[in-house]
Amino acid sequence: MNIKPTVLNISSTSADWRGLALSNFGLSPFVFNGMLFASVEGFIQGIKFPQGDPRRSEAFNLSGWDAKHLGDQADRSGAYWQEVCLPYGSAQHHQLIEGAIRARIAQSLGLQQALLSTEGSVLVHNTGRVESPTTSLPAAVFCRILTDIRGELAHTRSS
Fold first, then answer.
1. CA distance 21 to 11
2. pLDDT, position 152
3. Is it true that domain 6-158 has CATH number 1.10.357.40?
4. What Å distances lie between residue 156 and 8, 86, 116, 149, CA to CA?
């Protein structure tokens, strides 16, 4: 007998509250490298702008579609962090975003519990739109990050 695992959509369009809560779009303040961000989406969009560009700090204070639309103005020439320009879409760019996602979850017991409650589910990121080839964070990378964090939290809980 094959038991098909449940699938949980982590997205602002999810029908499951946990998918909504774990989405990068939600207003969910966190601190990363000593800076306060309104949301992971704001972080993702803000790092598209170089230091000194006023849209950078504006994006850091936004969430959801407001952040996403502001980020659409960026030329995607790089991801800018701590005086370094990382190649846009590179492994280093994805690792930087992963650091922000990890910080957000580490700072919220509720998000940790929500993520742990998805144990046994396959995490997907389906927004109902075709993924852009220029996306900052491909769905597969985002879901791998959350799955890794979930595994680490489960391991810590069982230790």
1. 8
2. 98
3. yes
4. 22, 32, 11, 10
Q: Are strands 79-81 and 84-86 parallel, antiparallel or unpaired?
A: antiparallel
Looking at this protein, which amino acid is placed at residue 148? D
- What are the tens digits of pLDDT across the range 29-81? 999 999 999 999 999 999 999 999 999 999 999 999 999 999 999 999 999 99
Distances (CA, A) of 152 to 42, 83, 116: 25, 31, 10
Q: Is the pLDDT of residue 1 over 60?
A: no
CA angle 151, 4, 157 (to 5 degrees): 20
Domain boundaries, the chain: 6-158
Cβ atoms 23, 11 nearer than 8 A? yes
Tokens 């846009």 correspond to what residue?
A: 88
C-alpha–C-alpha distance, residues 117 and 11, integer Å: 16
Share of the chain residues as helix, strand and coil, in percent rounded to the nearest 5? 45, 15, 40
CB-side exposure of 15: number of CA atoms within 13 Å? 3
**pLDDT at residue 9 is higher than 90:** yes
